[in-house]
Request: fold
Amino acid sequence: MVRDVPVGVQIVAGHFREDLCLLAGEAIEARGAPPSPIDPAV
Reply:
C-alpha cells in the first residue's frame, strides 16, 4: 500500500471462471488511475 492505494493486486478464480477475474479487474480499474511511478533520483 502507498497511502491508501494498493500497488499490486492478484486476482484468482476457480477453473474456467476467467470471467470473474475480468469483472474484478474492470471494477478495480474503474476506481481510478493507478499511481504513477516516482523517479528516485529527484
In short: Helices lie at 18-30.
